[in-house]
């Protein structure tokens, strides 16, 4: 009898705990299973769990039927989770615009939103995000094939604090949409436009000095567009891997205006010439890592310019460059005083004797025989909410 009375007393005590007290307890729970169990205790604890939930992640099932069921649940979950600061719906290809409707009442605390590969989302869905989530700083829209410049217009006007935006493979966007981002979001720091082949680069005109990181792999940027990207920004990292050219002309020398550039990826830029290499080498004094792998247009004058001007260069990638030779290695070895590593393999004109002489003259430089496809900071870190 005494034990029953103690149990009833304990139950009554718990029922009188305030929501603030329960929320404090919930926030101390570390595992997901413990937090789920907390919410299943009773209706009030379920409400407190929803108040305490800061992050929501749906994982792609690769099953359209299951994804559709997930999509049906999302509006209700969002409506009951008013304090979320991060949502990831990545991979839900069946997600419709209507699933985002409750963001109008529950999205004000949201800072990070991923719609990666949500190909069902259109401009209407992004308009709801822009209205309901004014405090977003990180947005991922990669492979949202149905969004256009209209979506970027509404997003930029509704989320002016935006800092990181991933538009990779969004085929419908043009320079007009990119221009809207820079016009309305003065704090934009990171932008990914990989595979956006309708961009010339003109949309970057007037980008602010806070702009630091650009991924533009497999884009078709014009010489004037490259000039707009380099001038005015504070770019520290630039990836132009597999840059395409509609004219067949090399405009990469315009990057010499990017005075703050530290990491530059020009891998497989087949139109790159010695003149542009020399312009970049002399105009970008802070370069620390430069990927020139498979750049067949670089000859001895280009390699000599790197040795002459790149005094802070630490890592150089020259894999499979057809026109680097023993004399080119000698020119690099006579310069680049801070050089730590050269990634070199598949270079037919470089002999074993040339490699041996380079090693004798620069014994502390590591010759690496493997090829690196990407350089610089990881995308995950750039889009992580701090």
Sum up the structure in keywords.
386 residues, alpha/beta, Monooxygenase, Leucine-rich repeat, LRR (right-handed beta-alpha superhelix), 3 domains, 13-stranded parallel β-sheet, 13 strands, 10% strand
Q: Numbering strands along the chain, what is their spatial order in the largest sheet? A: 1-2-3-4-5-6-7-8-9-10-11-12-13
Order of helices and strands: HHHHEHEHEHEHEHEEHEEHEHEHEHEH
Task: Give the count of helical stretches.
Answer: 15
Q: What is the fold-level CATH name, i.e. the topology of the largest domain?
A: Leucine-rich repeat, LRR (right-handed beta-alpha superhelix)
**Uncertain residue ranges:** 1-12
Instruction: Identify the CATH class of the largest domain.
Output: Alpha Beta
Rg over CA atoms: 26 Å
Largest pleated sheet: 13 strands, parallel
Mean pLDDT equals 88
First-to-last CA distance:
53 Å
| Share in β-strands | 5-15%
Portion of residues within helices = 25-40%
- Summed up, the domain count is 3
Structural class: alpha/beta
Describe this structure in words.
- This protein has 386 residues and is α/β, with parallel strands linked by helices.
- It has three domains: 17-52, Monooxygenase (Up-down Bundle), CATH 1.20.1280; 56-199, Ribonuclease Inhibitor (Leucine-rich repeat, LRR (right-handed beta-alpha superhelix)), CATH 3.80.10; 251-372, Ribonuclease Inhibitor (Leucine-rich repeat, LRR (right-handed beta-alpha superhelix), Alpha-Beta Horseshoe).
- Helix content is 37%, strand content 10%.
- The protein has helices at 2-15, 19-28, 32-39, 43-52, 64-79, 103-106, 123-132, 149-158, 175-184, 223-230, 274-283, 300-309, 326-334, 352-361, 379-382, and strands at 55-57, 86-88, 112-114, 138-140, 164-166, 190-192, 213-215, 237-239, 263-265, 289-291, 315-317, 341-343, 366-368.
- Strands 1-2-3-4-5-6-7-8-9-10-11-12-13 form a 13-stranded parallel β-sheet, with no helix packed on it.
């Amino acid at each position: 009898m005494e034990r029953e009375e103690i149990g009833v007393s304990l139950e009554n005590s718990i029922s009188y705990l305030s929501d603030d007290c329960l929320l404090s307890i919930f926030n101390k729970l570390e595992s997901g299973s413990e937090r789920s169990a907390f919410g299943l205790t009773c209706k009030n604890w379920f409400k407190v769990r929803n108040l305490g939930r800061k992050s929501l992640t749906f994982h792609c099932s690769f099953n359209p039927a299951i994804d559709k069921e997930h999509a049906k649940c999302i509006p209700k979950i969002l409506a009951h989770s008013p304090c979320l600061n991060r949502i990831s719906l990545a991979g839900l290809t069946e997600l419709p615009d209507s699933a985002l409707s409750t963001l109008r009442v529950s999205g004000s605390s949201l800072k990070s939103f991923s719609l990666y590969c949500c190909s069902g989302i259109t401009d209407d869905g992004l308009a709801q995000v822009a209205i309901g989530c004014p405090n977003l700083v990180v947005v991922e829209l990669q492979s949202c094939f149905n969004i256009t410049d209209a979506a970027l217009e509404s997003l930029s006007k509704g989320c002016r604090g935006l800092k990181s935006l991933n538009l990779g493979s969004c085929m419908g966007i043009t320079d007009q949409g990119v221009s809207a981002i820079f016009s309305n979001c003065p704090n934009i720091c990171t932008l990914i436009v990989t595979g956006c082949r309708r961009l010339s680069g003109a949309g970057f005109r007037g980008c602010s000095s806070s702009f630091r990181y650009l991924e533009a792999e497999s884009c078709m940027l014009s010489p004037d567009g490259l000039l707009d990207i380099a001038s005015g920004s504070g770019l520290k990292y630039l990836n132009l891997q597999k840059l395409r050219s509609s004219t067949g002309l090399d405009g990469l020398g315009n990057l010499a205006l990017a005075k703050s550039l530290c990491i530059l990826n020009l891998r497989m830029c087949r139109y790159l010439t010695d003149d542009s290499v020399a312009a970049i080498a002399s105009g970008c004094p802070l370069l620390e890592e430069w990927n020139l792998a498979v750049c067949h247009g670089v000859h001895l004058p280009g390699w000599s310019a790197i040795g002459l001007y790149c005094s802070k260069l630490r890592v150089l990638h020259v894999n499979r460059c057809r026109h680097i030779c023993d004399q080119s290695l000698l020119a690099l070895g006579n310069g680049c005083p801070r050089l730590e590593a050269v990634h070199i393999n598949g270079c037919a004109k470089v002999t074993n004797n040339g490699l041996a002489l380079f090693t004798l003259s620069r014994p502390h430089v590591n010759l690496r025989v493997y090829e690196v496809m990407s350089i610089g900071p990881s995308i995950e870190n750039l889009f992580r909410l701090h």
